[in-house]
Write a structure and sequence with these properties.
It is built from six helices and no strands. With 175 residues, the chain is an all-alpha fold. It is globular, with a radius of gyration of 19 Å.
Length: 175
């Protein structure tokens, strides 16, 4: 018996202690895969929105000067991962097949080429910013690269609200 996970749960009695990971597991097989992709993207959107609101709350409390933690670290990682997932899904929906690679700049070029009818240029700065902050999704997950060298440790300040708004807008634009 694993105390952290189980496959069955009495949701009426145990719902306070046990959270369902993926609702798409309940879908019929013919709908499951598509719903699972949407579920993951929507889950990241909700998480991004919640973390953004917490960051803004802490900023309003004037506690942002020095802390031993930063919610911006998981926030920017989640935003980056979310953009990567959205671009891959948008490309896959239009041309089929799975797009390989983690560079959102490459995915962005493909996406803009495929969706010529949409005015996606507005999001160029968002994509460029995220790409510059974390080109391959490693910088905000680890302190060092695979060679043991510290990732660039430069001071940046994020407009978390604007990033959130534009990522949400991009999602609506693509889906």
């Amino acid at each position: 018996m694993n105390k952290y996970i189980k496959e069955n749960c009495n949701l009426n009695k145990e719902s306070i202690d046990w959270a369902l990971i993926k609702t798409s597991a309940f879908f019929k097989e013919e709908f499951r895969m598509e719903q699972a992709e949407i579920e993951i993207i929507d889950s990241y959107v909700i998480c991004m929105n919640i973390i953004c609101e917490q960051i803004k709350k802490e900023l309003r409390e004037k506690m942002q000067v020095l802390r031993t933690y930063s919610l911006c670290i998981p926030y920017i990682f989640i935003c980056r991962q979310l953009i990567e997932l959205m671009l891959k899904r948008a490309i896959e929906c239009k041309i089929g097949g799975i797009k390989i690679g983690h560079r959102i700049s490459n995915l962005w070029v493909d996406c803009k080429t495929i969706y010529k009818e949409k005015r996606l240029d507005y999001y160029d700065e968002l994509i460029e910013t995220i790409e510059n902050l974390d080109p391959d999704g490693q910088k905000y997950r680890y302190v060092k690269d695979t060679n043991g060298n510290e990732f660039e440790n430069k001071t940046y300040f994020l407009n978390v609200e604007l990033i959130k708004v534009d990522v949400n807008r991009l999602k609506k634009e693509l889906f």
